[in-house]
Amino acid sequence: xxxxxxxxxxxxxxxxxxxxxxxxxxxxxxxxxxxxxxxxxxxxxxxxxxxxxxxxxxxxxxxxxxxxxxxxxxxxxxxxxxxxxxxxxxxxxxxxxxxxxxxxxxxxxxxxxxxxxxxxxxxxxxxxxxxxxxxxxxxxxxxxxxxxxxxxxxxxxxxxxxxxxxxxxxxxxxxxxxxxxxxxxxxxxxxxxxxxxxxxxxxxxxxxxxxxxxxxxxxxxxxxxxxxxxx
Length: 231
Fold this sequence. Notes:
The structure is a single chain. The chain is built from 10 helices and 8 strands. By secondary structure, the chain is α/β, with parallel strands linked by helices. It has a 6-stranded parallel beta sheet with strand order 2-1-3-4-7-8, with helices on both faces. Helix 5 crosses helix 6 (143-151).
């Protein structure tokens, strides 16, 4: 690994899923010599998830590439101001500005954009309709794997959805963004707009919202570019 490479990678999952979805990405990064850690967000509130992420960052022995998928992008935008975080990677993720939350970013979908099949809140938590999970979240994942993801959903706290970012880390740290052009959860035009606003180096692949599961190599390639500081 080159001298200027960042060797520590911390992976942050989004809503409805947990850190186990990073397994394929984890294996590929480990094979390439990276130290990889996975955050298990409670997804109860943005503050709780930022605390969980900063605990993992604190355990690293040097600079960190902090990677977030989906709602995890809001988490890394807030947690990424930590001095140990050198670079940010957004995987089809929200990249909120100051005062924005996932809730505010999804409040006014463009006409014709797919509407994620989020069920009404139950005791302050959200789930996706299991019968529509594969189509909306994981259309290019094997049916067996998509069924498991649907049946092992993590309740996503309404408070996490509404958590507003204070000082977005992308304003002070270099960032990279992977657009998934077949995403039915976050419209690709919104992804491109957030990436451009953040000044991110952008890559784009034809993939679903679960691109980190279906195309782990594309995700790893971008993380490695970030680790090497290649725009």
